[in-house]
Each structure stands twice: as C-alpha cells, then as structure tokens.
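User: Sequence in, structure out. Go.
Assistant: Echoing your sequence, followed by the structure tokens.
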Amino acid sequence: MGRPYSTDITALSETFKWAFSVKLPDLQRAVAAAAEFPMVYVGSGGSYTGGLLASQLHWQMARKVSRVLTPLEAGAHGDWSNTAVILLSAGGNNPDVLGIFNYLLAAEPAVLGVICSRVGSKLNSRAPAPRRLLFKMDAEKLTG
C-alpha cells in the first residue's frame, strides 16, 4: 500500500544536515567547468529523474541550456565537442549505460562526468584517469 513517507519526512532535517557536510571536490570542479557549456545529463529510470533536477539547477544557476536524455537519445546525437555531459547511473552495469559511456568517451565532449551509486561497478571501473575534466564518483562513498 505504498511507502510510509512519514519516516522519511522525520529524517529530513538530518538528511539536510548530512548533505551540507559532505565534501565533493571532484563534483564541485566538474560543475564549475560545466557551467561554461550547455549541459546534457544522460540517464534512465531514477537516474533520469535525478537528471531532471540537475538540469533545472544548471539552467537556473549557469544560465546555459540543459537537457536530460536517455542513453538511446544520447547515442543519436553526433557532435558533443561544445557540450558538457554527465552520465548518471544507479548500478553502473547495464549494457545501455556502458555502451553510451564508450560512445561519449570516443566523442570527447567538453566535459564528461560519471556519477554512479555502486562502488566497483563496470561503469566506474571503465572511467579512465582524468582527461580534460573526466571525473567519476561512487555515491556509496558519500555515506561513509
């Protein structure tokens, strides 16, 4: 019969306190670099929803065009040279996510980032050392 959101609401102030205490230098660096470019967030399912929020924030804060695309939609686009791209994935092991990551890596967008919530995922293990401003982040490390 649905999720008992009253528990989530009760923990909201603690969640805000935790969120403001987390240091994310790689993400901060990527967001600052991406502010110069139009932004595309790539994700599916819940990651697509997260991309919607991030896209709106980019639009409001950087005053640059921002969109959210599925991996399929992103694969249909050819020129990424003047675009910042952040790939969002919960598990980091789905073939569509791995495929679009390889495609984007070869396409060399102005900024390429990966945010994945699973430590040791195929996606995070494939992300090479920084090139331009490629970064990767395991969301599970945030809770430690």
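User: And one key feature?
Assistant: The mean pLDDT is 83.
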